[in-house]
Write a structure and sequence with these properties.
Helix content is 44%, strand content 15%. With 635 residues, it is of the alpha+beta class.
Length: 635
């Protein structure tokens, strides 16, 4: 697990001084504290930071082919690299000088070019320079577990594992993209390919691009990305019982692939069904080895799941450790979180995820996690609201408005996913079309609310009617349409890839910890996507298929308990330990000088929240994170 940077002179001229790449590369040293390496060619320069996981002695990057005409830097893990290497060796055309997975990618590219990607089972982003043909090849893994940012500035193509590295290139402008700001306020994250700064892009998951310096100048500068894989919902002809067996075998194999490591390995254990399922498979595969499990606990009971984690740990005999997250720790680590995020991202669970990663890294270098289970099996609360909402959308608008007014009289609670919070969020999105309402439920500021929030000169430069266009973009890519499959696909393509996986990658890599997600093995994704959606959401039971499949392994009260989510009690903290920080960041004079948000509207949100009139936790946290980011990157 690593990070990399690169510079290509698109005009085939000289490269900038070497210390430019050194600064870019060292800005992401947290991703790879064990080693650094560089390649400086005539038109291309590559930098790499290494976190040693496999082939500790021989895995230094960049890696070259036999005649050094190809060079690669890479971030991730290829879990099937040993079988791929065996196949390559049997051709008699390749000589390996390391035992690393990186070198396998290089020789596989020699055999199949861009087609090498379809053979890779893992999480990765990579940059491969073909010096003989003056050609760059960059790619990301299927589900988007590993990041890649890029931009064309002057006559240079710049790329890196994190946005902050690009900002170390001299004179690179930092101009906020208003379209990305609009999306951040609506979604709480910025969907790929957009980034917070103008003219900087994120390569989409399961996409690649090539840059050929032997083509004409206009073609060299036009970065055209191509998709190489996607989630499909072509249904299998299989019974429920048969599917359970196939799933367990497929999932167990996915977990087993992620146990390969030359360094200590553990698992995140929240006590929810996803992480508990991973632990169950690990215990099945490692009967004579200690499993180290890690958990974060909260003092506020409505957010705390640690007792469930302890129960699962006890059942499987793991070496279990937990740490409590008090408000004082939030204030302490918040500046670090904003520093490694690079872009504003308003998922509060980034805080416990970072603390969990920091805590876990003290004991192991690799941790398995349950990410992806909620998206693939329809596990989030909005999935449960999907069918009731389709019924309510037929109700006349005046009656819906009346329901919203009645909901306003519900007592306001700061507890985790409280009744008033769920009811109000549900009604706030009911007027949107089915695919979009899910993101109105999950997000903070609808386009109508942004009209009140944003400064008039910002609004003048925006098309608020295009806020959710990215949802339509992904819907057009689905081959087989079934109502719930559409929503599952959108959650995978937006919430999972641009929120959950960004959160896990940045938080874990900030602590030099590698996080592995068995549910995101493409064999698991392909299988689960081929199952009928009615098996995933049955009545008001989400993850129905996963729960039935795991019944032989997990206790009933773990499988069928109410979902809490991995949140923090920000609603109450904004009224207590975070109040002064919030008040300072959202001070009217500061906002007026900034010229992005309407001070009066923001003050109204604050007062309504602080007096207990309305729970604005999501909106205030979204603004709170943006202001923290702005102070770090724009002042």
């Amino acid at each position: 697990m690593c990070g990399f940077t690169g510079i290509i002179n698109l005009d085939k001229g000289s490269l900038p001084p070497r210390d430019v790449l050194h600064k870019m590369n060292r800005s992401i040293s947290h991703r790879g504290p064990d080693d650094e390496g560089y390649y400086f060619g005539e038109y291309a320069a590559l930098g790499h930071r290494r976190l040693s996981i496999i082939d500790l002695a021989g895995g230094h990057q960049p890696v070259y082919n036999e005649d050094s005409s190809l060079v690669i830097v890479y971030n991730g893990e290829i879990y099937n690299f040993k079988s791929l290497r065996k196949n390559l060796e049997e051709t008699g055309r390749h000589h390996f000088s390391t035992n690393s997975d990186t070198e396998v990618i290089l020789h596989l590219y020699e055999e199949e070019g861009e087609g090498c990607l379809r053979h890779l089972n893992g999480m990765f982003s990579l940059a491969l320079w073909d010096a003989r043909n003056e050609r760059l090849f960059c790619a990301r893994d299927r589900m988007g577990q590993k990041p890649l940012y890029y931009t064309v500035f002057r006559n240079f193509l710049l790329f890196a594992s994190e946005l902050k590295a690009l900002l170390h290139f001299p004179d690179l402008p930092r101009s906020i993209s208003l379209k990305s700001l609009n999306q951040y306020l609506a979604f709480e994250y910025i969907p790929a390919p957009n980034a917070i700064f103008e003219n900087i892009s994120k390569l989409e998951p399961a996409h690649y691009f090539t840059v050929d310096l032997q083509k004409n100048a206009s073609e060299r500068r036009r970065i055209q990305t191509q998709s190489w894989w996607d989630i499909h919902f072509d249904k299998k002809d299989i019974s429920f019982k048969e599917a359970e067996k196939v799933f367990i075998d497929t999932f167990r194999n996915a977990v087993e692939r992620r146990l390969i490591s030359d360094v200590p390995l553990g698992v995140f254990l929240s006590g929810g069904i996803d992480s508990s399922s991973v632990v169950a498979m690990m215990a099945d595969l490692m009967p004579h080895r200690d499993i180290k499990s890690f958990c974060i606990a909260f003092e506020e009971k409505s957010f705390d799941e640690s007792r469930y984690a302890r129960k699962v740990a006890g059942r499987f005999g793991t070496d279990h450790r937990e740490e409590i997250l008090p408000p004082s720790r939030l204030l302490e680590i918040l500046p670090r979180v904003c520093a490694f995020l690079d872009e504003p991202m308003a998922d509060p669970s980034i805080i416990p995820t970072y603390l969990l990663s920091e805590f876990t890294r003290k004991h192991v270098t690799v941790a398995l996690a349950g990410d992806g289970g909620d998206e693939l099996f329809a596990g989030y609360d909005p999935f449960l609201a999907h069918y009731p909402a389709k019924v309510l959308e037929r109700i006349p608008r005046p009656f819906l408005n009346l329901l919203k007014k009645i909901a306003g009289f519900l007592p306001v609670s700061t507890k985790n996913i409280s009744l008033d919070f769920k009811v109000k969020q549900f009604l706030s999105g009911i007027s949107y079309p089915a695919p979009i309402r899910h993101f109105a439920w999950l997000g903070s500021f609808t386009p109508e609310e942004q009209k009140m929030l944003l400064h008039p000169h910002v609004l003048a430069s925006l098309r608020l009617d295009e806020t959710y266009d990215v949802v339509s973009y992904y819907l057009k890519r689905i081959r087989v349409h079934e109502s719930l499959d559409d929503i599952i696909y959108l959650y995978c393509k937006l919430y999972l890839q641009d929120d959950i996986l960004v959160k896990v990658d940045r938080a874990s890599m900030a602590c030099s910890l590698e996080a592995r997600a068995p549910f995101l093995d493409f064999t698991v994704v392909d299988l689960v996507s081929s199952l009928p959606s009615r098996w995933k959401l049955k009545g008001f039971t989400g993850k129905y298929f996963l729960k039935k499949a795991m019944e032989p392994y997990l206790p009933h009260d773990i499988l069928y308990r109410r979902k809490k989510g991995f949140g923090i009690p920000i609603a109450s903290w904004f009224k207590g330990p975070l109040k002064d920080v919030l008040t300072n960041l959202l001070d009217p004079k500061r906002l007026e000088a900034q010229g992005i948000f309407q001070p009066d509207y923001v003050q109204r949100l604050m007062q309504e929240h602080l007096t207990g009139k309305i729970d604005h936790r999501k909106r205030l946290w979204t603004l709170f994170i943006f202001q923290n980011w702005y102070d770090r990157y724009m002042l």
